[in-house]
Amino acid sequence: QVRLVESGGGLVQAGGSLRLSCAASGSIFRINAMGWYRQAPGKQRELVATITSDGSTNYADSLKGRFTISRDNAKNTVYLQMNSLKPEDTAVYYCNAYVLRTWYLGDDYWGQGTQVTVSS
Fold it and tell me: Which DSSP helix (H) or strand (E) runs through 58?
């Protein structure tokens, strides 16, 4: 079993910053990619950013320049630095990882989500 544990969410005023962390643990052979997604009330879950084990990143176009994703492979941890936050960034942020449990068996895993609220 693989578990993703998130931290760093909370309440922040518009223009402020937050740094989210997500650590993976359990039966892990290798993590090929990790990422962040978010879901606002009444909306579908959307991509925020992803990063591969080689460090290649992908961002939602609307967030590029404000959000930065990074990872520490040795700690199986992914981070999301969020700057210049806006009220429309308010959402539940979910951590995701594509995990190889063995060399031949892989699957997607999700965290429980962490609430980010940006006040005006």
Answer: strand 57-59
Q: Which two tokens mark 78?
A: 């992914």
Q: Which residues contact 91 (CB under 8 A, 6 or more apart)?
A: 38, 39, 40, 43, 116
Q: What is the pLDDT of residues 38-81, one digit of tens each?
A: 999 999 999 999 999 899 999 999 898 999 999 998 999 999 99
- CA distances for 58 relative to 41, 52, 76, angstroms: 24, 9, 18
Q: Are 16 and 66 in contact (CB under 8 A)?
A: no
Nearest to 46 by CA among 99, 112, 91: 91
User: Which residues is 100 bridged to in the sheet?
Assistant: 30, 106
**106: exposed, middle or buried (C-beta count within 10 Å: 0-12, 13-18, 19+)?**
middle
Phi, psi of 87 (to 5 degrees): -55, -35
Element (H or E) spanning 31, and its range? strand 30-39
How does residue 1 score in pLDDT terms, banded at 50, 70 and 90?
confident
